[in-house]
UniProtKB/TrEMBL annotation:
EC primary class: oxidoreductase
Gene Ontology biological process terms from the UniProt entry: intracellular iron ion homeostasis; iron ion transport
Domain of life: Eukaryota
Organism: Modicella reniformis
Protein name listed in UniProt: Ferritin
List of residues binding Fe cation: 24, 59, 62, 103, 137
GO molecular function: ferric iron binding; ferrous iron binding; ferroxidase activity
Function recorded in the entry: Stores iron in a soluble, non-toxic, readily available form. Important for iron homeostasis. Iron is taken up in the ferrous form and deposited as ferric hydroxides after oxidation.
Catalytic activity: 4 Fe(2+) + O2 + 4 H(+) = 4 Fe(3+) + 2 H2O
One GO cellular component, as annotated: cytoplasm
Family membership noted in the UniProt record: Belongs to the ferritin family.
Entry keywords, A to Z: Iron, Iron storage, Metal-binding, Oxidoreductase
Amino acid sequence: MTSLTKQNFSAASEDAINIQINHELQAAQVYLSLSAWAGHVNQALPGLEKFFRESAVEERGHAQKLIEYQNRRGGKVVLQTLQAPDSEWTSARNAIESTLQLEKDVNKGLLNLQKIAEENNDPQLCDFIETGYLEEQNESIKKLADLVNQLNRVGGDGLGLYLWDQNLLNQKTDNK
Ligand SMILES: [Fe+2]
């Protein structure tokens, strides 16, 4: 598709951005489901519920930023169907560990997008991904890994889990 703003912007990059938008929206979908799970009476983990809810907002923000970027470059945003996320996790530890894998998958998508931008000699897209996404993605993975380790330290159940969750509840929000 032609557009007035398109310059040095390959079809491969355009497609890869759309794929990444989908990864980010899928991640938001999974976080929403996790948040609902954590807030269910059987779990009653308000800290984890809040943490996952904020993560969903964050992922949606990542998708929105890519949508705006795609439009700036003259590409066309094409959204795809999202998959139904899981709705059952066996424990807080299981839930948080599953997001660690999710974020690693999102990171793989970003690295792939970066590679396509490089192969197509698009320094502007490379810079956008590097400064806007890769570092932040790394921080999220570190944060999740910290949470897993902290939960393991307190035992993952009983009073330890309660305190861990309260700590999450009282943490300041830093939505990006
Ligand atoms: Fe993201």
